[in-house]
Write a structure and sequence with these properties.
- By secondary structure, this protein is α/β, with parallel strands linked by helices.
- It has 2 domains: 402 residues, Rossmann fold, CATH 3.40.50; 127 residues, GMP Synthetase, Chain A, domain 3, CATH 3.30.300.
- The chain has 18 helices and 32 strands.
- The strands form 10 sheets. A 7-stranded mixed β-sheet has the order 5-4-17-16-18-19-20, sandwiched between helices. Strands 7-6-8-11-12 form a 5-stranded parallel β-sheet, sandwiched between helices. The protein has a 4-stranded antiparallel β-sheet with strand order 23-24-26-27.
- Helix 1 packs across helix 2.
- The longest helix has 17 residues.
- The protein is globular and about 70 Å long.
- 54% of the residues are buried.
Length: 634
């Protein structure tokens, strides 16, 4: 374990959480400051700052304007799809948020009511989120373009007073109409909303007027809106509901509170991301995901920084230099993106030739989360950018990093493949299946000792019992992350993948993540996935699926031989790795997670359901015969 400021902060956070988090809470504006940090009277459910009151929107906007920084840029909108850029100062953003809060209030939205937001990456999505928070209401953002049945399930679960939507979203090769999906979802749901407020965008067929009296036009409503003041709420009151990706059956809505979230995110901006007032952070994600909630919207604004809202892709809008152009144009200090985006850029432009066109001297750190950052991509990004590459590991449920290199607190020596150490507040342990600690270097279940720190999920929406059974029942006194990994002899954490990605080959437990790390080292491989397939003799066998870099000149049969030899050399004969297939693309969610479970089910001939969060369903369709053939081999 590291020495110095990090170690001191980490030990204090575990030994004196009351003192640690009350001190951190001083960075937040409270209408009623908390006298205590933790309420554990209803364990295993915990509440942070139980006697505090605040308004999260006030903390994100008003207090910066009152401090005299109203003309500083708060939000930079950059649409590569439309070639449009807009700057929202803190004063302008506050004005628009306060007026839209007035619109919501006119529709009966008040403290504790829910608002479902179904929008693409446009400023109005951020405005709607903050306006909901301003009223003490609860937003639930659903990724624009979700299927009507999935949107209906979320409306049914959250029972919103109002739905806020845009007329559509823009993809590189098409436009996606949103309003027919909203109308269908409302028809499928038994819950009736007061109104649907629609932000019209040019080039879409449908508008609010096409659907009747309860459908209202955003701009018309804003024209005469009376600004709404911020409504103080209890720190423990919910700020938002966010439904986890890949949900099957009834939706699983993660509940985030106001006070703990504001404190944790404010602490993280200074201590993890090293971004302060007036500095620019660009999180290349989507507001529909937890990374977008936390590090596009709330954290940068809580810190008084400037956040970039990017509507575009890492490649194809227009080319593999898109990210470098944004860094140059907005003088980005910290870029936060998913490994998938980096691999997409590398696949298209392996030598980063596009980078030479841009001045990215403002960039100080590249942060990555969402999927495991493989060693090859980590080293490539560090080499071409010349800045530290910092892997984060966290989840929708936690809301902010579990493990990270604390760049603002004390930059620590990085290790390829590791998100470094647990963040202060997280008592991370690695246990075997019986709940016993495992030695250093031994893979096991990654768990977090209760209570979880501020900013993490309080429960699941209207379902404490499901929260306890889903997360707290596997290991008594711990939150089960569902991930496996190990702690090395220096204390660094290595996250290898989901616990259901552990395969058993002839009695040997192997991590598919470890095999993927080896495959990714081959110079022709852009990205890969390894799954465990049913095997009559050995129980399971590992099968690899690889996507090649652009311009890679290699015969598939020769590549397979090289990959097999590489795994044998790095992991050993015990892996019994003999099967690899070149594919055009891997199926992923919109947040960049590869659908390994779905791939395994298809290959094994099992029934499968393609998650609603998939980026491109056609990729699965094209892979079905390849996966079925792979499953029949051996």
């Amino acid at each position: 374990m590291a020495a110095g400021q990090y170690r001191s902060a980490y030990e204090q956070s575990l030994q004196d959480p009351e003192g640690f988090w009350l001190e951190a809470a001083r960075a937040v504006h409270w209408t009623k400051p908390p006298g205590s940090a933790l309420d554990d009277g209803d364990a295993p459910l915990f509440r942070w700052f139980p006697d505090g009151e605040l308004n999260t929107c006030f903390n994100a906007l008003d207090r910066h304007v009152e401090a005299g920084r109203g003309e500083q840029a708060a939000l930079e909108y950059d649409s590569a799809m439309l070639g449009v850029r807009k700057t929202y100062t803190y004063s302008r953003l506050l004005d628009e948020v306060a007026r839209f809060a007035g619109v919501l209030r006119s529709q009966g939205v008040g403290k504790g009511d829910r608002v479902v937001i179904y929008m693409p990456m446009i400023p109005e999505a951020v405005i709607a989120m903050l306006a909901t928070a301003r009223l003490g209401a609860v937003h639930s953002v659903v990724f624009g373009g979700f299927a009507p049945a999935e949107l209906a399930a979320r409306i049914e679960d959250a029972t919103p007073a109002v739905v806020v939507a845009a007329s559509g979203g823009i993809e590189p090769s098409r436009r996606v109409e949103y309003l027919p999906a909203v109308a269908e979802a409302l028809g499928l749901s038994d819950h009736e909303v007061t109104s649907v407020i629609v932000k019209s965008r040019d080039g879409f067929a449908a508008a609010a007027a096409d659907y009747g009296g309860q459908w209202l036009d955003w701009d018309e409503q804003m024209a005469g809106a009376e600004p709404a003041a911020p409504v103080p709420v209890a720190a423990t009151d919910p700020l938002y509901i966010l439904y986890t990706s890949g949900t099957t059956g009834s939706p699983k809505g993660v509940v985030r509170d106001n006070g703990g979230y504001a404190v944790a995110l404010t602490w993280s901006m200074k201590n993890i991301y090293d971004v302060g007032p007036g500095e620019v952070m660009w999180t290349a994600s989507d507001v529909g995901w937890v990374v977008g909630h936390s590090y596009i919207v709330y954290a940068p604004l809580l810190a008084g920084a400037t956040t970039v809202l990017y509507e575009g892709k890492p490649v194809g809008t227009p080319d593999a230099g898109a990210f470098w152009r944004v860094i140059q144009d907005h003088r980005v200090k910290a870029l936060f993106t998913a490994p998938t985006a980096l691999r997409a850029i590398r696949k298209t432009d392996p030598e980063a030739a596009e980078l030479a066109k841009y001045d990215i001297s403002s960039l100080r750190t590249l942060f990555s989360a969402g999927e495991r950052l493989d060693v090859d991509t980590y080293e490539w990004a560090g080499r071409i950018l010349g800045v530290p590459v910092v892997d984060n590991w966290w989840q929708t449920e936690t809301g902010w990093p579990i493990c990270a290199n604390p760049r603002g607190l004390e930059p620590l020596p990085p290790k390829a493949g590791s998100p470094t150490f647990p963040v202060p507040g997280y008592d991370l342990q690695i246990l075997d299946g019986l709940g016993e600690p495992v030695p250093a270097g031994t893979e096991g279940n990654i768990v977090l000792k209760l209570p979880l720190p501020p900013g993490t999920l309080q429960t699941l929406w209207n379902n404490d019992a499901r929260y306890i059974s889903s997360y707290l029942s596997a290991f008594d006194g711990y939150y089960a992350t569902g991930d496996s990994g190990y702690r090395d002899e220096d204390g660094y954490i290595f996250v290898m993948g989901r616990t259901d990605d552990i395969i058993n080959v002839a009695g040997h437990r192997l991590s598919t993540g470890a095999i993927e790390q080896v495959l990714a080292q081959h110079p022709a491989v852009a990205e890969c996935a390894v799954i465990g397939l049913a095997d009559a003799l050995k129980g399971q066998r590992a099968a690899g699926f690889v996507v090649l870099k652009a311009g890679a000149q290699v015969q598939e049969n020769e590549l397979v031989k090289e990959l097999v030899a590489l795994v044998r050399r790095r992991i050993g004969p015990v892996a019994d790795f003999k099967q690899a297939t070149v594919v055009e693309a891997l199926p992923k969610t919109r947040s960049g997670k590869i659908l390994r479970k779905t791939m395994r089910q298809i290959a094994d001939g099992e029934e499968y359901v393609v998650p609603s969060t998939i980026e491109d369903a056609s990729v699965v369709d094209e892979l079905v015969p390849v996966l079925r053939q792979a499953g029949q081999r051996g």
